[in-house]
Every structure is written in C-alpha cells, then in structure tokens.
From TrEMBL:
One of its GO terms (biological process) is spliceosomal complex assembly. The gene is crnkl1. PANTHER family: CROOKED NECK-LIKE PROTEIN 1, PRE-MRNA SPLICING FACTOR. It is found in: Nucleus speckle. It comes from the Eukaryota. Involved in pre-mRNA splicing process. As a component of the minor spliceosome, involved in the splicing of U12-type introns in pre-mRNAs. This is Crooked neck-like protein 1. Residues 691-700 have a biased composition (Low complexity). InterPro entries: HAT (IPR003107), HAT_Syf1_CNRKL1_C (IPR055430), Syf1-like (IPR045075), TPR-like_helical_dom_sf (IPR011990). Residues 670-812 are annotated as: Disordered. Belongs to the crooked-neck family. The lineage of its organism: Eukaryota, Metazoa, Chordata, Craniata, Vertebrata. Keywords: mRNA processing, mRNA splicing, Nucleus, Phosphoprotein, Repeat, Spliceosome.
Amino acid sequence: MASTAAGKQRIPKVAKVKNKAPAEVQITAEQLLREAKERELELLPPPPKQKITDEEELNDYKLRKRKGFEDNIRKNRTVISNWIKYAQWEESLKEIQRARSIYERALDVDHRNITLWLKYAEMEMKSRQVNHARNIWDRAITILPRVNQFWYKYTYMEEMLGNVAGCRQAFERWMEWEPDEQAWHSYINFELRYKEVDKGRTIYERFVIVHPKVKNWIKYARFEEKHGYIAHGRKVYERSVDFFGEDYVDENLFVAFAKFEEAQKEFERVRVIYKYALDRIPKHQAQELFKFYTMFEKKFGDRRGIEDVIVSKRRFQYEEEVKANPHNYDAWFDYLRLVENDADPDTVREVYERAIANIPPIQEKRHWKRYIYLWINYALYEELEVKDPERTRQVYQASLDLVPHKKFTFAKIWLLYAQFEIRQKNLQGARRVMGTAIGKCAKNKLLKGYIELELQLREFDRCRKLYEKYLEFSPENCTTWIKFSELETILGDVERARAIFELAIGQPRLDMPEVLWKSYIDFEIEQEDFGNTRNLYKRLLQRTQHVKVWISYAKFELSIDGPDRLQKCRQIFEEANKGMRSCEEKEERLMLLESWMDFEKDFGSDGAMDRVRKLLPEKVKKRRKLTAEDGSDAGWEEYYDYIFPEDAANQPNLKLLAMAKMWKRQQIVEEDEDMGEKSPERSPEMVEETSSPPSAAAPPENDSDRNSVTEMEQEKNGSRDDDGSSSSDSNDEDGKKESREEEESSDSRYEKKSREEEESRDSRYEKKSREEEESSDSRYEKKSREEEESRDSRYEKKSREEEESSDSRYEKKKGVCWIMWRSARRSARRSARRSALKSH
C-alpha cells in the first residue's frame, strides 16, 4: 500500500469492469489440458544419445551413474525402486558382485519386501548361480513362509533342475505351514507327474484333514475313482458322511456319492443314499437332491420308486410346516395321513406322539376342536391298523384325562370310547364310560348317544330310565319328549305315550312347542282317536290363533270320512275368519281365505265360491314415511296393503273410494259406447272433462293422491273413534241426514242397474283396461320418476301445512261432499245423453 505525506495509507484503485456478462464461449479446465497435450507444450525433448569410445570415458560414465544412484539412495533409502534400478543397472554391466552387494544392502533396509527377494533370486537364476539362488529362496521362505509365491518359484526351480527330492522336500516344508488348497493340489499334481499315486493318496489324507470341506472330500474320492480304486473311493465317501455327521450335511456330497454308485451300477445303493440324505437334510437345502433323485428314478426305477420320491418330498414339506407352526393341526393331519400309508407303526406312533404333544395354549373349546381329532385318529389307528386294543384303551384314557371337563367336553370321544369297549365285548366297561361322562359333564349329545346305545342292545328299561334322566336334565327339549313317546308307542304302551305327551305340553317352557303339538296330534290321528284330536286342536287354538293351525284343523276334519265333514270344515273356516279379523298380519288372513277358496273350488258350490270371493281383500299400493336410526327423514317407500270388504264396510272412507272407482269405470264404459257409435263431435277427454265431478268431491286419479286421502281419512276416523265425542255443527248433522236418505235410495237403484249392466260391461272394460294398463304403466312410470323428486318436497311441505288445517276443513266439507258428488254424477249423465242425442 502506498502512503501519503500525512502518513495515511492510500487504497489503490480497482479496475472497473464494464461488461460483466459471461463470455459466449466458455473454456473449461479439461479443454485447457487437452489443448496443452495436443500441442505438446509440457514434453521435453529426449536427451542426446551418448556414444562411449574408450575406457576412461566408460569409467567416467560409470562413476557419474553410480554417484547419481547413490545420491538417490542417500536422499531416501526406503524407496526400494531406487535400489532395484541400481542393482539392475549393475547387472546390465555384468557386475554381479556389485549387484549382489546392492541387493544385500537393500535387504538390510527392508527384508520383508517381496519384490526385492524375487528380483534378487531371478538375477541369480539368470546368471546361473544355482546355489546362490537356492540360498536366497531358502532365506526368503524362512523369513516369509506365508508368501506362496516364494514356494511356487522355489519348487518350480528345483523341478526344472531335475532335483525331485529337493522339490519334494520343499513341498514338505511348505505343507507344514498348512497353506491354502491350491498349494496342496500343486503338491498332489507334482507327485502324479512322477506316477506316485500312493504318495498322492497320503497327501490327500492330510489335505482333507487340514481343509475339511465337502468339495475336497469329493475330489479325494474322484481321485481314487480316476485311478481305478473303486473300493477306496467308496470308503472315502463313507468316511466323509461319517466325518460331517448330521449337523453339517450337504446335499452335494450325497449327490456325488449317488452318482459314483450309479456309475458302478449299484442302483440299490443309490436309492438308499438318496433316502438317507432326504431324511436328514432340511427341505429348503435339498432341492438339487430331489431333482437328481427324481431323474435317477425316471431312468432306473419303477413306478413305486417314483412315488417314493414324491412321498419323500411331501414329507419334508410337512416337516417344515410343523416346525414353523407346531399348532397347525391341519398340517399334522396331512403328515400323519402320508406316514400311515407308507411307514412302520413305530414311525407313525412317533409322529402321533409329536402331534398330540402340541396342546392348545388356551382352554377354549374352539381351540381344541381340531386338536381332539389327533387323539381320535391315533386311537382308531391303534385299533384298526395295529390291532392293539390295550394301547387303544390307553390312548382314549389319556385323551379324556387331558380334556378340562369342568369347562367343556367332547361327546364324540366319550361315545367312541364306549363303542370301542362294546366292540371288545366289554359291555360293563362301555356303560361305565358313559356313566362317567354323564356324571362329569352331562350334555344332550351324550345322553342321546347313550340312549341309542341301549336301544341297539334292546335294553328298553334302561332306555326309559335314561329318558327320565334326560328330561330331568333338559325338560324344555321337545325332541326328547317326542322320542320318549315314540319309544312307548313302539313298545305298545299307548296310554303311557299319551301321558308323556300331556306332561310335555304342560311344561312352562319349550324350545319347539309347535313340533310337540303336531307330534301329539299326529299320534292321536294314528291311534284314530278323533275326539281327542279335536280336543287337542281346540286346546291349541286357545293358546294360539295361528293360521296354519286353523288350516290344519280344517284339513283334519276334511280327511275324516263322514256325512257332515264338508260342513264341519266350512264351519272351521268361518270361525277362523271371524277369529282373525282382529289379526294384524293381513297376509295370514289372506292365506286362510285362499285355502278356504281352494276348498270351495274342490268341494263347494258356485254360491259358496262367490261368498268366499267377496271376502277376499283388495290389494292397494300405499306410501309411508321412513325414518333413519338417528331420527332424520329417510324418504318414502311404497308398500302393498290388503283391504278386506268387512273392514271396508266399517270405514265409510273406503266405501266412498270404491264408489268413486265405480263412477270412473262407468265413465269409461260410456266413452266406449260413444266411440262405438262413431261420434266425431267430442273426444273422450272432453267428455271426461265435462262429466267429471267437482274438484272437492272428485276421486283421486293416481295412487299417491288416493293413498294420501285414505291416510287422512283413516287418521281422522281413528281420532274420532278414540275421542268418542258426538259433537258437531248443526249443518253437518243436516247434511249427514240428507246424504244418508239419498244414499239409501240411490244405492238401491244403482245396484239394481249395475247388476244388469255389469255382465256386458265387464268384458269390454277388461279388454280396454288391459290395453290402457300397458300404455298407462309406461307413461305413469316415466311421469312418476320425473314428478317424484319434486312431489316429495312439495308433499312434505304441503302435508305439514294441511295437517294443521285439515281437521277443521275436513269436518266442514265431509257433510257437503256426498251431495256435491251425487249432483255431479247426475249432471254428467245428462250431458252424456245430450251429446248422444246430438250425434244422432
């Protein structure tokens, strides 16, 4: 930095760069280096060649070179390359003594340098100084015995010189250090080059001890096989199997052993070797073994041998599965099934003992259900296959001692044990077993099995006692009562059977009372005691009014031959219909009427059929509001309801609806007549519009409107019935009186006329209604889908508003509704007649 006169430092000015943008062409370091190499900027020209012509110049040259080498060594004597260059330069001048001196000096600096020893020995061998070379190799292997290169060079030199004894001695010295496998192979190959097979065998013996690997044993055996010593080779394989034992087995050893025996045509030996190996090697390590075994059996074996291979493979698979999860009882079952087909009893017992040793850890029946079958299969195997009853008895006893009977039991094993004792003609033992079972843990299956056992033995007194015990244990079991009664019936004691049935139906709690009553009734029918049967039906109907009981009762009366059987059957149907009027299940009531209708078709007259047909209900589609679990609105659903004529007579709203339907039907018939007369003046739609009643009294045109009307009227009638009040306005009472008077006169006239016209009108109406139904259904469905979404919202909104005001409006309008509807009907008839006259 420059300083001013005042002593202050002055900062030099920095050159300003005007254009700081990067250059268009960028140069990298790689490009700089490549350019320098292409231009050879760093290469120095070679020194000029020097030609020496006299000895002084040569000595001077030597002095300068030696001085340079010595200077380099003096600067860094640990750099062995300087020593080697120095020695090689002296060697090139044939100065062997100087070169040897340099190598010795270098060895004093670093005697563990392998390259230095190699160069030193190579120099001596090149100069044919054999004793010097031997001396150097001997020193090298003494100092560095683990360097294999020295040994290879040394033995190779001795062999090249023909000194076989010296080479063998060097190999022996080398083998004392237990080198790697290649060194042993070199020694063996050396002996084989001079036909020393026995010495090679001796070396192999030492080799497999020093390096105990499977491949070395295989090489040893192949060595014996190659030189024709088959017995020695087999012995080597056998020794190798014994040497490795069962802990360190390898599939390659057994494969090689089997191939050796296969080459000697010893096929049975091969098969034994493969089976021995498969029994001791894990499955995941024996893939190649299975492969070669299968190939061998395909080449030299029969079908049985191939199956043995597959069985062995499956056996190893099951062994792996049960080792992975000992509580996998399905794997144990498969394994035992495989072993039972192809194994001796001792082996099978061993596998069974291993399987049953895996007791479920939790004392819950669902964990024991599969396990207990191991014991059952074990006992059956001992009994059926081995024919050893004493051992079978021990298996059953051990299984029963193992099961915790206080928490749960298995009736199957108790019954199997008792049946086994019977097969052994030990009846007292079987009864003792079943008595113990019932005393320890009584259950339905045990009692049933014991009773069946005594029945087979025809011990009926014991069966009676057992049934009594069974009913004391489980009095609500209807099946037991029925079986007990059947037993007494078979034995011919009818009164005892009837008493059992009476006791049964008198029980306060039964699991299937309908089955019990049916069995009792069937019993009385079989005994042809029809009076008791009728009494039973009446007693049963006092307890339940089920439709199937009524139908069965009617069929029973129909099945009895007698002059008044049809009358009794019809009377039962009538009583059933009266009794089921208050039944909420309308489907059951419909079922009863349909059954009655079938009866009248088969046995009744036309009048009776018409009478029953009038009792049949009308199927009506309705809608009801759904509510979700959380109380929210879930929309509307359609359902079918049945309206019986007897119920409709009690509800004037339904009668009004029926009359409105009849009015509409009459309108359609009149339109058909007008169309038949080919009236072009007015269309049916116009006639329907002019002849329709007022909107307040018009019948609903679709199911939703009709359902809303019927629901409102039913609610209103229900509320009026519940209140029981007779208060109403004077106007309403007058309107009701007038409407009743008009209704009586008009109904009689209308019914009389309608009966005359109904027969001719029904055929035309049905024909047109079928045609209209097909078209109207499609139009209605299409329209209903479009309107349903908007209708729901509007209906909900409107229903809330109308519910508040409907009560007052309904009371006022109901009295006027009948009069308006009658007047509208009369005006519609007049207009229809006028139009007909005009058309004529």
